[in-house]
Amino acid sequence: MSGRETVEPETTGARARHAGAVTRHPSPKEYVRIAIILAVITALEVVVYYIDAVRDLLIPLLFLFSLIKFTLVVLWFMHLKFDSRTYARFFVLGFAGAITLYLIVLLTFRVFGG
Amino acid sequence: MAQLGRSMDVHVVESEHERTSTGLPHLKLAMWLFLASDCLLFGALISTYVLYRGASRVGPYPAEVFDIPYTSVSSFVLLASSLTMVLALAAIQRGDQGQLRVWLLATAMLGTTFVGGQVFEFTTFADEGLTLTTNLFSTTFYVLTGFHGTHVVVGILMLLTVLALSFAGRLPPERAMTVELVGLYWHFVDIVWIVIFTVVYLIPTGTPGGAQ
Amino acid sequence: MATVSVPGERRSWLVRRPRSTTGFWSWVTTVDHKRIGILYGITAFAFFVVGGSEALLLRLQLAQPEQEVVSAAVYNELFTMHGVTMVFLVVMPLSAAFFNYLIPLMIGARDVAFPRLNAYSYWAFLFGGVFIYSSFFLGGAPNGGWFGYAPNSVLDPTRGMTFYSLGLIITGIASTVSAINLAVTVINMRAPGMTLFRMPVFVWMGLVVQLLLAFSLPIITVGLTELFFDRRFHTHFFDPAAGGDPLLWQHLFWLFGHPEVYILILPAMGIVSEVLPVFARKPLFGYQFVVFSGIAIGFIGFGVWAHHMFATGLGPVANTAFGISTMIIAVPTGVKIFNWLGTLWRGDIRFATPMLFALGFIAMFVIGGLSGVTHAVVPHDYQQTDTYYIVAHFHYVLFGGAIFGLFAGIYYWWPKVFGRFLNERIGRINFWIMLIGFNLTFGPMHILGLQGMPRRIHSYPASLGLGFWNLVATAGAFLIALSVLVFLVNAVASFRRPAEMAADPWDARTLEWLTTSPPPEHNFDEIPVVHSLDELWHRKYAETRGGRVVPVPAGGAGDEHEAVADDSAGHGAGHAIHMPSPSYWPVVAALGLPIIAYGLIFNMWLVGLGVVVVLVGFYGWILEPSAE
Fold it and tell me: Which of A40, C391, C584, C589 has the least C-beta neighbours within 10 A?
């Protein structure tokens, strides 16, 4: 955590939150829209799995799709897009830490053909 | 001294009941820390699976047992449950107890469907010769998905508990954060599944002999 | 304005809310961080005596070549349990004792963020420790080393390593939950004006340790689960015949195990950072550097784990990378040492017992750190690994470092916690016997290691010429035991004196010395408003233009030091402060864990019972308000 004064409310981007203000929540309609996108991407994942033509691109595509779904759920459903940066910082710390550490472990086992 | 003035002006942005240094509620901060820590847990299990991918000396192998269309439906179910979860939260935030209960129940039912689907999937695999100790694939697969499934079951318990609290009249809009916290946990379990579905099911595992 | 803590009121329910503040049950149901800290401390010390006794048996066995004081099988249990005990049941809970007691006081709070969860952590720790030790009577204690390397840990036919895997999962749950609790406390419950960079170094180190715990414990939980499954259900995680790799265990273990050693040392470093300024009557030199170094150590600590695996054939690229990262981590550690020396330089030093132990820490830790740096040189480590040279290193940093630091803390904060001093003369005797005994025990191990004495052997041939230094080491071990006895005498004797202690007997710098000794249940009558680092010091002293430190005139400063009248109950100043009420549920919920564990070993029905107990505990907890 930085040495910034932490007792004041934090601001994100253009949306400066004043003391006592309620954080913005997406409407149910927006949530449904996100869910539809998630469903479509999942369908795409399955479709891509079966298409032989893109076999070589399968893994990068699947990673991309999961990344998008992951991000959508975390940012919208888990509300990180609208919430205090503090939550995001801790979550990213754990998530990025996990990816880094385990990637190194797998590398030492030469899992990726090293 | 200027800082003294600012510190006396501490205003809670989210935390309306307790005065906190960051303006954030204790429980929500704790939940995010817990979820961050849980990333390390699932990361280890997933890495174990990835490490041993294709290393089983005997079958059955993944391609022989996986039923992708079936598991895709499971994935849709879990994703849908995230939607119902967030709709439940939206309901209590606008004070709608009735809708809250409907969506909470829907989430719990979808979660139960998911778990039921997994149980069916596992028993099918077992019938096909893939039990816990059959090979490396079974070892890593069942423990990973078992951990995830246990997390889902705990989540369902929490959902039903919150539902019961609502029926008991103990969940006014001021306590919306309780639903929010259960929601955060639930969505996390969903995103872990997003990773598992891709890494375990969709990314193909070669079998000795090259068959795929 | 009288302020008083209000105990929980009765409620007619299934179970009456406990309300006693004295007696046995008040300790079982306490949610007060100070009492929980004392419970951790006493329990940890009891395990210290047990773990130390195990060490004495080891040293007796090794005092001379080719002895059979204990059999090889028993020897394996002893060295395993010595390690498990000292790491998980002594140093960690002793540090937890200090964190629990002091963090809320040092940040000007009344308790931790989740008091009942705090109690739960203590009971889960206690039950986990008892569970592991029960293995001695239930089929054999863990015997595969504290590090439990596969495939040996999987294949050992006695029950010990099963107890190991489940027991450490239980204590791991306790620590993870406590880590989240204390992290939220530090981040979220600081007194008005206490920004992060006005927190005492001890609190900073506390925060770093909690984050290290939260992120490293899940890794070993998975490793232990996989070990348990391999043993109990015959899965293949570490089974080479099925394609498994025992090295996976080592990665998972050390990914946790290395951050773990920083978890073990940072609290003691925090203590030393508090003790030195008080007994040198000088502010800590380079506060920000000390803080950032602690953070850096925590961070880099996650990047060095494979230095425990140099001899496993990782290859030159991995070895080089981890060798470099291990050397790099010596830098922030060195920074701290220079800052401590800078604190001492030209200080007005009082050689009271806390200061003696703090100085002992610095000297012993430097020695241990230097041998550590030699391990980082990979070819040299090939020679040292699995020899007594390594044993020397980690005892210098963990005993000479962590334990000495914790003793400094015990002597320093004893008057605050118990309202009496520990005797100075006996304290000096305690220190010197411990210092001499410690060096006699572990100093020679450098030599033994370089002469080739392997670790974890139950006897050695006479022809190797290792007998002399082993005998010296054994003598030293008994001196250590004597010094611990001296401490116990000091501790017991202190209670003969009446508890009349000033709030600030050491003329200290941090907020815990603002309130009475011991503090009331609610910690502070009024929450202090903080204006600077070392807030208490600045309330007592000002600096003249010539740089002299002069006392602030009594009474004159009264107006400036606002306190926040506690309004948490919404009743306004002058009314009773409502503290969280005692509760049975944390104990109940914690009790479910060992029941599940015994069930997994002996009888699956017991698992069901344990789950029910956990659920009952949690539902009772959720449905009960935190304060009544």
Answer: A40
- Please tell me the class of the B28-202 domain: mainly alpha
> Residues of chain A whose C-beta is under 8 A from some C-beta in C?
1, 3, 5-7, 86, 93-94, 97, 101, 105, 108-109
Query: Contact, B63 vs C209, CB < 8 A?
Result: no
Chain A residues in contact with C318 by the CB 8 A cut-off are 108
**Contact across the interface for A105 and C251, Cβ inside 8 Å:** yes
The stretch C171-189 carries a mean pLDDT of: 98
The beta-carbon neighbor of C306 closest among A3, A86, A108 is: A108
Those residues with Cβ within 8 angstroms of residue C68's Cβ, 6 or more apart along the chain or in another chain? C459
> How many residues belong to chain B?
212
This model of the complex carries an ipTM of: 0.93
Cβ-contact C269, C205 below 8 angstroms:
yes
Q: Is A98 on the interface with B (CB under 8 A)?
A: yes
Q: Is residue C224 a contact partner of residue C165, using CB atoms and an 8 Å limit?
A: yes
pLDDT in tens, C83-131: 999 999 999 999 999 999 999 999 999 999 999 999 999 999 999 999 9
- Asked if C361 contacts C400 with a C-beta cutoff of 8 angstroms, the reply is yes
- Other C-beta atoms closer than 10 Å to the C-beta of C468 total 12
For chain B, the domains span 28-202
Window 43-82 of A, Cβ < 8 Å to B: 43, 45-46, 49, 58-59, 62-63, 65-66, 69-70, 73-74, 76-79
Touching B (3+ Cβ pairs <8 A), the chains are A, C
pLDDT confidence band for A52 (50 / 70 / 90) = confident
CB C483, CB C52: distance < 8 Å: no
What's the predicted TM-score (pTM) here?
A: 0.93
Which of C188, C229, C568 is facing B143, going by the closest CB pair? C229
Contact C501, C517 (CB under 8 A): yes
What 3 state SS string does C271-297 have?
HHHHHHHHHHCCCCCCHHHHHHHHHHH
- Per residue in C386-401, pLDDT (tens digit) is 999 999 999 999 999 9
Q: Domain boundaries in chain A?
A: 23-83, 84-114
> pLDDT below 70 — which residues of chain B?
1-17, 206-212
C187-213 burial, b if ≥16 CB within 10 A, otherwise e? bbbbbbbbbbbbbbbbbbbbbbbbbbb
More confident site: A112 or C237: C237
SS3 of residue C578 by DSSP: strand
